[in-house]
TrEMBL record:
<dbReference type="InterPro" id="IPR047156">
    <property type="entry name" value="Teg/CotR/CapV-like"/>
</dbReference>
<feature type="domain" description="PNPLA">
    <location>
        <begin position="10"/>
        <end position="99"/>
    </location>
</feature>
<dbReference type="InterPro" id="IPR016035">
    <property type="entry name" value="Acyl_Trfase/lysoPLipase"/>
</dbReference>
<keyword id="KW-0443">Lipid metabolism</keyword>
<dbReference type="InterPro" id="IPR002641">
    <property type="entry name" value="PNPLA_dom"/>
</dbReference>
<keyword id="KW-0378">Hydrolase</keyword>
<dbReference type="GO" id="GO:0016787">
    <property type="term" value="F:hydrolase activity"/>
</dbReference>
<dbReference type="GO" id="GO:0016740">
    <property type="term" value="F:transferase activity"/>
</dbReference>
<keyword id="KW-0808">Transferase</keyword>
<dbReference type="GO" id="GO:0046486">
    <property type="term" value="P:glycerolipid metabolic process"/>
</dbReference>
<dbReference type="Pfam" id="PF01734">
    <property type="entry name" value="Patatin"/>
</dbReference>
<protein>
    <submittedName>
        <fullName>Acyl transferase/acyl hydrolase/lysophospholipase</fullName>
    </submittedName>
</protein>
Amino acid sequence: MHDRYTDEGRSTMFKKYFGKTRLSHSITELVIPAAIKNCSHLFTRYDACKNSKNNEVNNTFVDILMSTTAAPTFFPPHKIGNKAFIDGVMYLNNPASTAYDEAIRYNVPKEKISVLSLGTGYYLPDPSNPDQYSNLLFWAQEQPKMMISAQEYETDCKMYRELKNRYQRWQVFFEEPIRFDDYGSIPNLLELGYQYIEELDCSDENPINTLVESFDLVKCFLV
């Protein structure tokens, strides 16, 4: 199976904005997931700063972004040295618990951690029976449906158990399938996002205010 696109466009854009900047140069903590072989891999500012002279740990943002956006079937794996990386979604579709674990590793008090996890949306062929499709990710029309919901479900359970209302997972559902590379749908996606936020804001429980009120110290961001 051939990859649909080459690396040229992404590489040019990342080099334009990030040049040779390395992860240790970031002014805030970053935890960026990718995947290598049969497991997840994290690029973290924390480790990069501790090993700033080791270029195998303190990678450039160009290499990191090329790795974390190398979606299978769309882009080829990105090589850093003798290692080949792909999109972290393969093992961390919802990386919220990974961010939480990293914050704990940085000695951030649990009560000062709040997490907002943003999903990328689901298409349900049969909205009246959503559970039937909760374990499917529609990468592309010709690709087999990939089982990833277990990781998402386990993450949600863990985070709600640990943080209660200081953890929120925002997810929208599509009436029609949207291809992974359908950039023409971006305006529609933005509109769906605005509608979702308005609905949350108008709800009786108003989860937006609940989350904002819990903010004290934000320590980790995930890409």
